[in-house]
Design goal:
α1 crosses α9. The chain contains nine helices and ten strands. The longest helix is centred in the middle third of the chain and has 14 residues. Helices cover 29% and strands 21% of the residues. Strands 1-2-3-4-6-5-7-8-9-10 form a ten-stranded mixed β-sheet, sandwiched between helices. The chain has a single domain, classed as Alpha/Beta hydrolase fold, catalytic domain (Rossmann fold). It is an alpha/beta fold.
């Protein structure tokens, strides 16, 4: 199939939650192996994830933002491949995961993450979330405490989407006066910097094969926007790194300074010449920042 070769190597039924549907080995032109797998959640939704499969290495798990594609993470995954196992989870209703009316709330996304970590028998995982993917991780920490995580990385997501007197670093111009109606509008282009053409085309191809309908996932966006995760900044159970895009069209990068005022122990960084997708727009710089953070984590 074009630049990739697909081999079905295992298949089983989906009669019980958590069982594996299939394992596919993808070999790219660079001869990199990536496992493409699916599992059923305890509310009977089939979720897709990829796994570099290096079980002897420490694990990272990435979660894209709402409507986002795991394809936009491939350059970052490649940069980490020598030292880390890298897993990507497609949240329900996007990517190659099932479209469903079920669980259109951030708490359910957190449970999905926990179920995957349990299934893979993973502990001390570093979770990296872009946009709403970061909110999924905050929700995980609020429900499970440290749980199975070792640390968290936020890629361009303010802990509070709705600006008010207590927080001025919300999403674009979203306030309680125009919430939730503003969320029905087109947000415009998410990125500022050029994205690698091969990665961009791979994401475009996936969108064509697995279309994302914002209207069908609108309730999730509304619920996401209503949350306030500042308590998870104040009392984070794990080390946290927050990275903002210096040219993000969605968030003022100064929200990182406000986070430092909430908790000096949270590490922050701003990636220059970068929009809302640091992992895709500036993968080398993003890798450099995250790698330094990981190096300094206590065992």
């Amino acid at each position: 199939m074009d630049e990739d070769y697909w081999f079905m190597v295992k298949k089983s039924n989906l009669e019980s939650p958590g069982c594996f549907f299939c394992v596919i080995i993808e070999l790219s032109n660079q001869n990199e192996r990536r496992l493409k797998m699916k599992f059923k959640t305890n509310d009977d939704v089939i979720l897709h994830y990829t796994d570099t499969g290096d079980e002897d290495k420490p694990a990272l798990i990435g979660i894209p933002g709402i409507g986002g594609s795991c394809q936009m993470w491939q350059d970052l995954i490649a940069l980490f491949k020598n030292d880390y196992r890298f897993i990507m989870l497609d949240p329900r209703n996007q990517g190659q995961s099932e479209r469903t009316y079920r669980g259109q709330r951030i708490s359910r996304h957190a449970v999905d993450l926990e179920e995957l970590l349990v299934k893979l028998n993973l502990h001390d995982v570093v979770a990296i979330g872009n946009s709403m993917g970061a909110a999924n991780i905050w929700a995980y920490l609020s429900i499970y405490g440290k749980g199975r995580l070792k640390a968290m990385v936020d890629l361009d997501q303010s802990p509070k989407m709705i600006a008010d007197k207590s927080w001025k670093y919300g999403f674009k111009d979203l306030t309680w006066d125009n919430y939730p109606d503003m969320l029905k509008f087109d947000f415009g282009k998410a990125f500022y910097h050029h994205i690698d053409e091969k990665m961009f085309l791979a994401a475009k191809k996936e969108y064509q094969e697995f279309p994302y309908d914002p209207a069908e996932n609108y309730n999730c966006l509304v619920e996401h926007a209503e949350q306030d995760w500042r308590d998870m900044i104040l009392d984070t159970p794990v080390p946290m790194l927050v990275i903002a895009g210096g040219k993000s069209p969605f968030f003022n990068p100064e929200f990182t300074q406000a986070i430092k005022m909430l908790n000096q122990d949270v590490q922050t960084a701003i990636v220059p010449e970068c929009g809302h997708l640091p992992q895709a727009e500036q993968p080398e710089k993003t890798h450099e920042i995250i790698a330094e953070f990981l190096k300094n984590l206590k065992n």
